[in-house]
Amino acid sequence: LIAFFQPKPLAGKRVLLTAGPTVEPIDPVRVISNRSSGKTGYALARAAREAGAQVTLVSGPTALPAPRGVDVYPVQTARQMHQAVMAQARQADIFIAVAAVADWHVKNAATQKMKKTESGAGAPVLEFEPNPDILADVARLDGGPWCVGFAAETENLSEYAQAKRQRKNIPLLVGNLAHEVMDADDTRLVLFDDRGEHPLPAAGKLDAARRLVAEIAARLPR
Ligand code: CTP
Ligand code: CA
Fold it and tell me: Which ligand neighbours the alpha carbon of 101 most closely?
C-alpha cells in the first residue's frame, strides 16, 4: 500500500530490454551459446515495470517465467534478437541490453544433423561469421532511446568496461565480474558513466535491479 502512493520514477516511459543467451545452430540438433540464466535481465524488466514503465523484453531461451505485466518476445539467434529489437527501438525511451549475445554464428551450419562418421579427420571444422552488435546499432539511431549496456568481464573490469562504454557510445555501462554473477542469485554491480566509476553494494538480483532502475531514472535527460 505504501508503494502505491510513492511516485513511480519511470511512469510513462517505454523500456526495451534484451535478456538471456542467444543460441546459434551448428546443425538442427546442436548449438553454440553463451552462459546466461537471464536472471538479471528478467529482474530488471520486473523492476522497470514496478517503476511504472511499459516494458518489452526480447529474450533468448531461459527457464524463467515472463515477469508480470511485461511483453516478452522470445528469440533464439542473435540475428533474430537484432531484428526484434530494431523493429521496436525507435518507440522506446530507454534500451537496456542485458543479453549475453553470441558474438559469432556458424557460417557453415548444416541443414541436416551431422553424422560422426562423415567428418573427415574425426571432427567438423566450423566457420564463424560475426553477429550484428545490437546495442551499438541502437545507440547509433537518430533520436533513439537512452542506452544502457552490460559487461561481464573476467579481468581488468574498470579498464575494459570504460573502453566498452566509449566504443559503443552509450551514457551508462553496468559492469560485473563474470565469476561473481554467473548462475548466482547475488550480484555486485559497478556503474560506469562519463563521471567515472560507481560501485553499488552487493545485493540479490531483484534488489540490485531496483537500485539500478533508480540510478537510470536519476540519469535520464529531462
Ligand atoms: N551486445 C549486443 N549485441 C552483440 C554483442 C553485445 O547488444 N552482438 C551488448 C550486450 O548485451 C551488452 C554489451 O553489448 O550489453 C556488451 O557486451 P559484451 O559481450 O561485453 O561486449 P562486446 O562488444 O561483444 O565485447 P567482448 O565480448 O569482446 O568483450
Ligand atoms: Ca561479446
Answer: 1
Closest to 221 (Cα-Cα) out of 193, 189, 191 = 193
Q: Give CA angle at 209 (92, 67), nearest 5°.
A: 65
pTM of the model: 0.94
**Which atom of ligand 1 lies closest to the CA of 160?**
29
Q: Judge if the beta carbon of residue 103 lies within 6 A of ligand 1.
A: yes
78 lines ligand 1 (CB under 6 A): yes
Contacts of 142 (CB under 8 A, 6+ apart): none
Q: Could you read off the pLDDT tens digit of each residue along the chain, which spans 222 residues?
A: 666 677 899 999 999 999 999 999 999 999 999 999 999 999 999 999 999 999 999 999 999 999 999 999 999 999 999 999 999 999 999 999 999 999 999 999 999 999 887 766 678 899 999 999 999 999 999 999 999 999 989 899 999 999 999 999 999 999 988 777 777 778 889 999 999 999 999 999 899 999 999 999 999 998
The annotation places the binding site for CTP at: 103, 113, 132-135, 150, 164, 168
